[in-house]
Design goal:
Number of strands: 10
Number of domains: 1
Order of helices and strands: EEEEEEEEEE
Helix content: under 10%
Strand order of the largest sheet: 1-2-3-6-7-10
Shape: elongated
Structural class: mainly beta
């Protein structure tokens, strides 16, 4: 099992416009948790299954071009998000291939739609869709 947490208290120190404000696209909180289990001496020997979660807290961004409403340089919040990942891997040693394995990793398991970041009111980016990656490792 692996767990991590990060707290970032970033702010501009020497800026005439943003002094004392949080930088854009910098989450205050981030966390992750991952657990996996490998079966030994059972019918499932060599099988590893794992799952985990990643959390990225909310961020801020700043209006750049909104001079008509007076919001230029005002901040707005970008929601945080949590994603689940999973893996299945099989060690091929029992088939005479020590150090070899096959596996599948899935990022964003539930295919959640989320905004990963915004640089300004007109430059927001969607996060990555579900990604499935198959791997095969062979050592001779």
């Amino acid at each position: 099992m692996t767990a991590s947490y990060t707290y970032t208290d970033a702010q501009y120190q020497h800026d005439t416009t943003f002094n004392g404000k949080r930088p854009a696209e910098v989450p205050r909180n981030m966390a992750s948790l991952w657990a996996d289990y490998t079966f030994h001496e059972t019918a499932l020997s060599g099988l590893t299954v794992g799952a985990g979660a990643r959390y990225v807290g909310s961020t801020v961004s700043y209006y750049k071009n909104d001079t008509s409403t007076g919001k230029k340089d005002d901040s707005f919040n970008v929601a945080g998000y949590a994603l689940m990942d999973a893996t299945v891997k099989y060690d091929l040693a029992r088939f005479g291939l020590p150090g070899s394995s096959i596996g599948v990793n899935v990022n964003n398991l539930f295919d959640r739609e989320y905004v990963s970041s915004c640089y300004s009111e007109y430059a927001c980016y969607w996060g990555a869709e579900r990604q499935v990656v198959a791997t095969a490792t062979f050592r001779f």
